[in-house]
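User: Structure please.
Assistant: Input sequence and predicted structure:
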Amino acid sequence: MAMMDTGCRGLLIAGGGGAGKTTMGQAIARILTDRLLPTAVIDLDALAQYGPAPATERGFHDRLRIRNLAAVWATYRAAGARFVVVSGAIGSPELRQAFTESLAGCDVQMVKLLTPPTLVESRTRGTTRGPEWDLQQALAEYDETPGVEDFAITNDRPAPETAAKILLTAGWIDH
């Protein structure tokens, strides 16, 4: 996907449950802020910690994430952010489009983290992931998520190494 230079860049980090999306968002932000680039980091899960969802409203939490992302991004942008790193489950072309539109004024790319199942299992063993977390379901999500990403990166190295590879592939840094 060709990018226009709007002066602002957004990166959506997607992948199955336990893939390391939040960790990777933080690692990418460290690299960018160490280079003195004004960077916002947003975890989509944190934008929809609301419950219970109305039983009659299918997709309620996704719509909440989309609205909240637009509001939070506007605040960060007004504060001077030029880079935004967003981590979360993005499982359809429609959601990708909606999250991209929420990052007004940004050229947005999406990376999918491909994390080997053995690593997902070892990284999530003993963690508190909420009442809905199911390892087998998380592992199955890798096959269910359609290819709506611009590129995919295998997440099997230390986070700083994988983060640098993502930024190089996205063209945000050159070394």
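The beta strands are 9-14, 39-43, 83-87, 107-114, 151-154.
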